[in-house]
Specification:
Pfam families: Lactamase_B. By secondary structure, this protein is α+β, with helices and mostly antiparallel strands. It has 7 helices and 13 strands. The chain has a 6-stranded mixed sheet with strand order 6-7-8-9-12-13. Strands 1-2-3-4-5 form a 5-stranded mixed sheet, with helices on one face. Strand 3, helix 1 and strand 4 (50-55) form a beta-alpha-beta unit. Helix 1 packs across helix 3. The chain is globular, with a radius of gyration of 16 Å.
Length: 216
């Protein structure tokens, strides 16, 4: 039995929504449901999976813009995360999706998650345990999901392949972002797979050697 992973780019920004599912229980979660909810829901149905939860790393529209529609399709599946410091982004979602409509984003109402997440908490998918790390900087409430047994990190927009998340947004902080990467992510094993919010996956070891913004 295994933890299955499918990365599904959605939204005009090709944001990496990730479908995770447990072979044994057929339970699944979707991370960062930024848009194209009907397509994602059909994918879950076609695989015969039971969508347990939606997990969110942070509150930017390309990561959360499809959540309300997905909840309508899935009979109000619970939404878990991000950290409560990103509340202001979820509250502003109607304005942001209107603003970015010319770029192809669908309108979304605001919403509240079923549960905020904090540093040191855990979430579960079948037998798989994911630890929560709070890594502000890109947004103040950004979190990541780390499964030690599978050496897997759902990293959102913190660490990219040879890059890092932007810090030119309201309440962003370059200092906080780089500190979180150095003190939390770069302490993980080198062979941990990092599924970033955009573009290709990477590993912790690769970034420690090759990331020009923050070396290990």
């Amino acid at each position: 039995m295994a933890l299955n992973i499918q990365i599904i780019p959605v939204t005009p920004y090709a944001q990496n929504c990730t479908l995770l599912w447990d072979d044994e229980t057929h339970e699944a979660v979707l991370t960062d449901t930024g848009g194209e909810a009907e397509y994602l829901w059909q994918l879950v149905q076609d695989k015969g999976l039971k969508l347990k939860e939606i997990w969110l790393t942070h509150g930017h529209l390309d990561h959360v813009g499809g959540v309300v529609k997905m909840r309508e399709l899935s009979n109000n599946v619970p939404v878990i995360g991000p950290h409560e410091e990103d509340l202001f982004l979820l509250e502003d979602l109607p304005n942001k999706t209107r603003e970015y409509a010319p770029q192809g984003f669908e309108f979304s109402p605001s919403f509240l998650p079923t549960r905020w997440l904090n540093e040191g908490e855990q979430v579960h998918l079948g037998k798989y345990v994911f630890d929560i790390m709070h890594i502000p900087g890109h947004t103040p409430g950004h979190i990541v999901f780390y499964c030690a047994s599978e050496k897997l990190l759902i990293g959102g927009d913190v660490l990219f392949k040879e890059s890092v998340g932007r810090t030119d947004f309201p309440r962003s902080s370059t200092e906080d972002l780089l500190h979180g990467i150095k003190t939390k992510l770069y302490t993980l094993p080198d062979d941990v797979l990092v599924i970033a919010g955009h573009r290709d996956p990477t590993t912790i070891g690769h970034e420690k050697q090759h990331n020009p913004y923050v070396r290990g």
